[in-house]
Design goal:
Rossmann fold, CoA-Trfase_fam_III, transferase, CoA-Trfase_III_dom_1_sf, CoA-transferase activity, six-stranded parallel sheet
């Protein structure tokens, strides 16, 4: 393989759960040396999230792939000294603690600046590092609510629902990785002996703001027109017909027939040419007003066919549609396989060896196929001896340290 894009970049990850570890995963995917600092004995709490057997979840193995695990007690002077030594030779520090936590541990901005004047620091928190809510704790579920996102998810007339994944944490992690890359780029463009100001090297990602950023025109539509977006279930506000429909075999499909020309083909296909030619349905605005009638017509058509029959017919007519995949469907899909998006490993979960387990590949694709995953999320402290040796520790000192950290 050619040299990885981020080869030579060292990242120190002081993060639990999903947000900062997602940033670390993205950087590791493309070749950065990501050293994950984990607390003694228990490690990142994600190790036990959705744990079905053993002591290390598949969620942890996925989110922390490509990293090295170093056990450190950040509350101790020894742990602080180890982290500062690593920071002196690092390019990036990631953290997703409540603002002020690192300061209490002696890793405040001044100390980090003295240790490494070129260090890029990415901080992820519920509400950011400044402002009246900055000191307030909060997981992504709360941030999704504050960001206006949760109000848009679910069925009308019912309480808002979740999306089924930790979307707030994941999006925040992606934004932080983007910020890190901007700072690295800006650093490399500058003069080698002139460090960027500290504020230009600090990436401040707030979970609530990341969720606000994906609500599209939610705010300007309210400010300009007094339009309040509402939950629409499988629909998208103001766009029709676009929904999920139950077929005769009990499986649902998604059909996006909301383009003007597509709509006419779509209605003709389902045997409703009068809808295709209706003057009131030639624009998306009119179709949205008639969304219930359109969905009823499409639903009746879908109910008379299996999902495979419906999808084949829609595909032949050039109407965008697709199945609603389960995990089993994704794992067996030829398109994902062709691009290396399901990569298989034998993985030990602490109870037994699970063979040929599929994991999602690396995005984005460069060169036509996903880069190979170098390693799954490591065992707790798996690289402690290796990393301390790189810092110049003698073997007897490493042995003593590992004994105390168990």
């Amino acid at each position: 393989m050619t040299t990885s894009p981020l080869h030579g970049i060292r990242v120190i990850e002081l993060g639990n759960y999903i947000a900062a570890p997602t940033t670390g995963r993205l950087l590791a995917d493309f070749g950065a040396d990501v050293i994950k600092i984990e607390r003694p004995r228990t490690g990142d709490e994600l190790r036990r999230w959705r744990l079905y057997a053993g002591d290390t979840s598949m969620l942890y193995r996925t989110t922390n792939r490509g990293k090295r695990s170093l056990v450190v007690d950040l509350r101790s002077d020894e742990g602080r000294a180890i982290v500062l030594e690593l920071i002196r030779g690092a390019d990036v520090l990631l953290e997703n603690f409540r603002p002020g936590t690192l300061d209490r541990w002696g890793l405040d901005a001044y100390t980090l600046q003295q240790a490494n004047p070129r260090l890029i620091v990415a901080r992820i928190s519920a509400f950011g590092q400044t402002g009246p809510l900055s000191a307030r704790p909060g997981f992504a579920a709360v941030a999704e609510a504050y960001g206006g996102f949760r109000e848009l998810v679910g069925e009308p007339g019912r309480p808002p629902s979740r999306t089924g994944v930790s979307i707030g944490d994941t999006i925040a992690g992606i934004y932080a990785a983007f910020g890190v890359m901007m700072s690295l780029f800006e650093r490399e463009r500058g003069e080698e002996d002139v460090a960027l100001p500290l504020d230009r090297r600090t990436i401040d990602v707030a979970l609530n703001e990341t969720m606000l950023s994906v609500t599209e025109s939610l705010i300007p539509e309210w400010e300009a027109y007094g339009i309040r977006r509402e939950r629409t279930g499988g629909r998208m506000q103001g766009i029709a017909p676009s929904n999920a429909y139950l077929c005769g075999d009990g499986k649902s499909i998604v059909v996006a027939g909301n383009g003007d020309a597509i709509f006419q083909r779509y209605m003709t296909l389902i045997g409703r040419p009068e809808l295709a030619s209706d003057p009131g349905l030639q624009s998306n605005e009119g179709r949205w007003e008639a969304r219930d009638a359109l969905d009823d017509a499409i639903g009746a058509w879908a109910a008379q066919r299996t999902s495979a029959e419906a999808l084949q017919t829609l595909d032949e007519a050039g109407v965008p549609a697709g199945p609603i995949y389960t995990a089993e469907d994704v794992a067996a899909d030829e398109q994902y396989a062709a691009r290396g998006m399901i990569q298989r490993f034998d993985v030990h979960d602490g109870a037994e060896l699970r063979r040929d387990v599929g994991f999602p590949g690396i995005v984005p694709v460069i060169g036509g196929v996903s880069r190979p995953i170098t390693a799954l999320g490591p065992d707790l402290g798996q690289h402690t001896a290796e990393i301390l040796a790189e810092l110049g520790w003698a073997q007897d000192r490493i042995d003593d340290y590992e004994t105390r950290m168990r």
